Amino acid sequence: MGRQFEGPRRNFAAAASPPNAIPFIHRLAVSGAFKDLFREGMTLVEEAASYLDGPGRTESRGLSRPAALAYSTESMRLTTRLMQVASWLLLQRAVNEGELTSSQAQAERVRVKLSRQEYGCAPEVFEQLPPTLRSLSKRSLRIQERVIHLDQGLVVALSPEPAMTRSEVASQVERLRAAFSN
C-alpha cells in the first residue's frame, strides 16, 4: 500500500545546455504558466480541504470496511501530497516576488519533500472510492508531477556546474559495442 511511484526518471544533467544558452526553466518559473500552476495548485488544496471536511466525511460512512480503510489512506496521502505541492509553490512564489533569493529557496527546499507517489491502494479498491476523492487524487498526482519536473529543472539550472553525464541510451550502446567487439 505504501509504494512509491518512481515514474520515468528524467536526467536533466544529461541534457545540459551549451555554456552560452539561457536556461528556459528560469523564464518558466516566473511566467504566466507558473502563475497558472500556482492558482491551480492552491485551488486544488482548497477543493480537497472542503471535500474532506464536508461531503467526503458523509460519503466515507457508506463504504465497506476495505474501502473505508482505503479512503482513510488515500485522503491522508492526498493531504500530504497537496501540502508538499503548496509549500513548494509558495516557496517559488516568494522567489518570484523577490522575498527570497534563489539560494535561500534552495536551502529551504530541503524541508519540502517532493516525492512521486501512486495511489495508496490496489486499483480495484481505488475504483470503489467516491468519484470526487478519486478525481482529487488523480489531479493532485498530475500537479505534483508538474511541480517535480519544474523543481528538478531549477535545481539543475541553479547548480554551479551542471554534471555532464551520459544518457542511458549512450551507455547501453557502448555496452553493446564492447560486448560484440570481443
User: What separation lies between the terminal Cα atoms?
Assistant: 46 Å
- In total, the number of strands is 0
Assembly state of the chains shown: single chain
CATH superfamily: Protein of unknown function DUF1465
Overall SS class = mainly alpha
Please, could you describe this protein's structure?
The chain has 182 residues and is mainly alpha-helical. It has a single domain, classed as Helicase, Ruva Protein, domain 3 (Orthogonal Bundle), CATH 1.10.8. It has eight helices and no strands. α2 runs antiparallel to α4, α4 runs antiparallel to α5 and α4 packs parallel to α7.
Entry keywords:
182 residues, mainly alpha, Helicase, Ruva Protein, domain 3, 0% strand, disordered N terminus
Task: Please write out the topology.
Elements: H1 24-29, H2 32-53, H3 55-61, H4 65-96, H5 102-109, H6 123-126, H7 131-158, H8 168-181
Please summarize what this structure is:
The protein has 182 residues and is mainly α.
